[in-house]
Amino acid sequence: MSKSRRLSPEDDPDTSPTVRALAYAGTHEELILGSRAYCREAAREYDIDVDLSLVEWEVSTRAKRRAAAVKRPRIPEAEVGEPIEWPAAARRARSSLSNLRECTLSLTWAAFESFEVGEWTSTLRHEMIHVEQFQRYGTTDHGPAFKERAESVDASVRCPPFADPKYVLTCSDCGTVVGRRYRECKLVRQHDQYRSSCCGAVVACSGPESD
Ligand SMILES: [Zn+2]
Ligand SMILES: [Zn+2]
């Protein structure tokens, strides 16, 4: 048995093509496209009642603690648990219906970079429950109803924080990124025992210091 194993981005058997594409997003635009595609898929899979056509997307490079956030208008008297009458709320707010119902899902670039893709998709499901509540009730919080919904879609109840550094694994010949890991793990420690799928060359690992 050979000691060296091949490593390529397609090697993760557990994830859907959508999640794999998302994991390798390299630009803000790819992050938005990938996250939106994932949310569409997850809304069906987890039965989350959201109208994604009313959601705008942005990438934040400034947010420091929150992995993502839903920005939305504050609607007086809206309460989780009480379905909102949108036309009446728009009249009271002297706003157009579409403006009032729209919210923005703000994605934190540094969080995406520091998360395993599974943590990122869980973050997106958390935010989608906020969107679901907002679209239904005109507001959202982290109360008991949120907790129940978050658990049912396998997402954390609190907004996921982020901090961890990352390791990037590249082909030592051509520089192609062949993997990313977000914790020190066997692959990070023994990266020189792996060979890249592109060139069959040694896999190099850049740690958090050299980033
Ligand atoms: Zn939250
Ligand atoms: Zn290569």
* CATH architecture tag of the largest domain: 2-Layer Sandwich
Question: What is the first-to-last residue Cα distance?
Answer: 34 Å
% residues in beta strands: 15-25%
Low-pLDDT residue spans: none
CATH topology type of the largest domain = Zincin-like
Major sheet strand order: 2-4-3
- What is the string of SSEs from the N terminus onward? EHHEEHHEHHHEEHEE
Helix content: 25-40%
Main β sheet profile: 3 strands, mixed
> What do the pLDDT scores average to?
87
Bound molecules: zinc ion
What would you note in describing this structure?
Strand 5 (167-171) and strand 6 form a beta hairpin. Helix 2 (28-46) packs across helix 6 (117-137). The protein has 2 domains: 13-152, Metalloproteases ("zincins"), catalytic domain (Zincin-like), CATH 3.30.2010; 165-206, no CATH class. It has 211 residues and is of the alpha/beta class. Strands 2-4-3 form a 3-stranded mixed beta sheet. A 3-stranded antiparallel beta sheet has the order 6-5-8, with no helix packed on it. A two-stranded parallel ribbon has the order 1-7. It contains 8 helices and 8 strands; from the N terminus they run E-H-H-E-E-H-H-E-H-H-H-E-E-H-E-E. It binds zinc ion (ZN) (2 copies). The site of one zinc ion has 4 residues, from helix 6.
Describe the secondary structure blueprint for this structure.
Elements: E1 5-7, H1 17-23, H2 28-46, E2 55-60, E3 68-71, H3 86-93, H4 97-101, E4 103-108, H5 109-114, H6 117-137, H7 144-152, E5 167-171, E6 177-181, H8 186-189, E7 194-196, E8 203-206
Helix pairs in contact: 1-2, 2-6
One zinc ion (ZN) binds at residues 126, 130, 142, 159.
